[in-house]
């Protein structure tokens, strides 16, 4: 090994990039023979200009600890979003390609996958107390190294401090009228430097998978100079419904219909989510 080079530990294989991803079969056929074949649902969005085959990813044993936030984007009640976010969290924190540890009894929302590597934490936008955008300064005009104290609103400073704690983000979003919830766009608009340069993943859901929301959000995150990974799972929700007549101020826990979960399992959604997670790890290891 040449002096100054970092040793690496392989998760599965070697890094591989394809300059063009023609469709789901490109991802399926790039895997080693000993891995199960994934059947990607047609709603899955795999159309970036460049994609990484995550069966072929390395990350460094010297990579410092990194923290990934999984963001619940909808704030209405009742809502399905927290349940979908929990599903994504459970899949990623039980990923066999990362040395996962179970959450500690004192932290239900955070799990270490390796003390040197990755932690996942759920952030719920409904708990951030963000009004409709009212910050009087332009976020991009503030000092890039420490914008937090320069905001004029206390809720902006609080939100800035939260976002700065994380190295990457996974936005779990429903599709509203071919787009994302106003609550997510509002939370993104409050900040700039806190997002800039950080890797981001998108998980959408809806009756057809939420692909339009993914497309819109990808453009917004790119405008914030985030490094959006190529794999963007779209979860088709056909059977899980919201309770009718729940009080607007009451948070109601929504249980996933097992038929939806089984459909995701059969179509390979869990594997696609893990691929997205490993893309984020690979992006973080470039830093």
TrEMBL record:
Gene3D superfamilies: 3.40.50.360. Transmembrane segments: none annotated. Residues 68-231 form the NADPH-dependent FMN reductase-like domain. GO terms for molecular function: FMN binding; oxidoreductase activity. GO terms for cellular component: cytosol. Signal peptide: none annotated. Residues 1-46 are annotated as: Disordered. It comes from the Eukaryota. PANTHER family: CHROMATE REDUCTASE (PTHR30543), NAD(P)H-DEPENDENT FMN REDUCTASE LOT6 (PTHR30543:SF21). This is NADPH-dependent FMN reductase-like domain-containing protein. It comes from Penicillium brasilianum. The lineage of its organism: Eukaryota, Fungi, Dikarya, Ascomycota, Pezizomycotina.
């Amino acid at each position: 090994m040449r002096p100054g080079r970092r040793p690496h530990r392989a998760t599965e294989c070697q890094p591989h990039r394809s300059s063009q991803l023609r469709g789901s079969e490109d991802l399926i056929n790039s895997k080693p023979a000993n891995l199960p074949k994934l059947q990607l649902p047609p709603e899955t969005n795999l159309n970036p200009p460049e994609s990484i085959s995550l069966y072929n990813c390395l990350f460094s044993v010297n990579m410092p600890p990194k923290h990934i936030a999984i963001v619940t984007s909808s704030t209405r009640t009742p809502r399905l979003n927290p349940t979908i976010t929990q599903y994504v969290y459970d899949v990623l924190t039980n990923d066999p390609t990362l040395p996962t540890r179970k959450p500690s009894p004192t932290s239900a929302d955070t799990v270490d996958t390796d003390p040197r590597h990755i932690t996942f934490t759920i952030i719920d936008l409904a708990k951030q107390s963000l009004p409709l955008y009212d910050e009087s300064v332009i976020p991009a005009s503030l000092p890039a190294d420490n914008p937090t104290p320069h905001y004029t609103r206390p809720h902006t400073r609080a939100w800035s401090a939260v976002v700065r704690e994380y190295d990457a983000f996974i936005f779990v979003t429903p599709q509203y009228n071919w787009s994302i919830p106003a609550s997510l766009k509002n939370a993104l608009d409050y900040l700039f430097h806190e997002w800039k340069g950080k890797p981001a993943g998108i998980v959408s859901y809806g009756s057809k998978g939420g692909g339009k929301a993914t497309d819109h959000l990808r453009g917004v995150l790119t405008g914030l100079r985030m490094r959006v990974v190529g794999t963007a799972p779209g979860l088709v929700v056909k059977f899980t419904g919201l309770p009718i007549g729940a009080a607007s101020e009451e948070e109601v826990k929504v249980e996933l219909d097992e038929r939806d979960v089984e459909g995701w399992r059969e179509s390979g959604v869990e594997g696609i989510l893990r691929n997205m997670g490993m893309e984020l790890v690979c992006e973080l290891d470039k830093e």
